[in-house]
Design the sequence.
């Protein structure tokens, strides 16, 4: 018995330093906040991960945000909703944003933001933020307004906001949007003005303006879908790429050729493996932007490469090279267009025609002028 007691006491004494260290380590860890923070709270690095335990309703008190996340802090909304002002009042505009992300490598997840000015604002020079499973609904301006670099949004939705669904400003570079949806926003579904941003598995549908506006430079979209937007893909800027994607249907409301599946007014872009189906206007139109055409910045459409496109049932031309030069169309097909399946038209037209673009290994039912585009193939008969 004495030996047993001595061994037990010795083991307990040996374990004390370890237990003390574990206790100190536990005390040193930032814990989750048990109750909701007050509206306007700054969640800082020392707060660690804050978890909501209920909805947070913030009266509109002017510019600012319901919550701020600075440093490397995080907010788990835990399935709850942040509301600005009175969500039942759809007449009085609020000025308060939902959440501002201001730090480095902070996080926001698992909830909804309703009736604010911008739902989520990632402000410059914020970087490395992670936004996951956040739904921004019926906000008065943008759903997501992004200005910082290197941020990642995944499994988010922007729904019925009064301007853009996801708005990536000129200062937003090298961001990622993954597995997300922009639906029924009054403006563009997704707007990109920065550099080297990447989108993958993003769907934009039933928005009041472009499904995807791609400006800036060297942005890439892979496996994205645009359905029932005014223009499915509006590609401007320099070196932007869209690959393995779909443009299906477009809305009425603006004249051709601006109501189109794909509109290209930039330089050295790439459109690869894109299916364009049942659009009201042009399937794909590449054109110089000069008055009196609708222009933003006088874009010049040249040096673009279009390959492996399949354009079906366009309300205008299938693929239309309109007063543009130095572009390439290769390995593509267009059928069942209301007008020619392919056109290469310089303005004013000349006889014999001036061939401004390069066409190679394509298949079109009808084309004009055939001397530029090459011989076509028979269109399948409608059943």
Sequence:
């Amino acid at each position: 018995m004495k030996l047993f007691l001595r061994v037990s006491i010795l083991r307990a004494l040996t374990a004390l330093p370890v237990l003390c260290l574990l206790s100190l380590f536990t005390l040193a860890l930032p814990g989750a906040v048990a109750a909701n923070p007050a509206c306007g709270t700054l969640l800082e690095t020392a707060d660690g991960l804050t978890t909501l335990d209920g909805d947070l309703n913030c009266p509109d008190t002017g510019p600012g945000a319901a919550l701020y996340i600075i440093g490397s802090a995080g907010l788990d909304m835990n399935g709850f909703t942040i509301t600005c002002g009175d969500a039942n009042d759809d007449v009085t505009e609020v000025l308060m944003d939902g959440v501002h992300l201001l730090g480095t490598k902070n996080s926001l997840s698992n909830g909804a933001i309703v009736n604010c000015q911008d739902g989520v604002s990632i402000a410059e020079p914020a970087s490395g933020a992670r936004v996951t499973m956040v739904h921004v609904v019926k906000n008065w301006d943008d759903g997501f307004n992004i200005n910082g670099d290197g941020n990642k949004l995944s499994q988010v939705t922007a729904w019925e906001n009064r301007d853009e669904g996801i708005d990536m400003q000129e200062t937003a570079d090298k961001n990622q949007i993954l597995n997300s949806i922009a639906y029924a926003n009054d403006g563009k579904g997704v707007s990109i003005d920065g550099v080297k941003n990447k989108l993958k598995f993003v769907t934009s549908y039933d928005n009041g303006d472009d499904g995807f506006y791609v400006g800036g430079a060297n942005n890439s979209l892979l496996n994205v879908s645009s359905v029932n937007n005014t223009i499915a893909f509006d590609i401007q800027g320099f070196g932007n790429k869209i690959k393995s994607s779909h443009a299906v249907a477009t809305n009425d409301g603006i004249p051709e050729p601006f109501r189109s599946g794909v509109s290209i007014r930039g330089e050295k872009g790439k459109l690869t493996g894109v299916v364009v189906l049942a659009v009201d206007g042009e399937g794909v139109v590449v054109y110089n932007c000069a008055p009196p055409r609708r222009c933003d910045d006088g874009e010049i459409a040249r040096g673009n490469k279009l390959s492996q496109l399949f354009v079906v049932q366009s309300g205008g031309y299938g693929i239309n090279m309109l007063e543009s030069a130095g572009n390439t169309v290769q390995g593509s097909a267009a059928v069942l267009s209301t007008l020619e399946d392919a056109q290469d038209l310089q303005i004013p037209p000349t006889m014999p025609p001036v061939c401004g673009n390069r066409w190679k290994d394509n298949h079109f039912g009808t084309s004009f002028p055939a001397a530029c585009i090459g011989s076509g193939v028979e269109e399948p008969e409608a059943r």
About this structure: The chain has two domains: 33-156, 210-383. The longest helix spans residues 2-28.
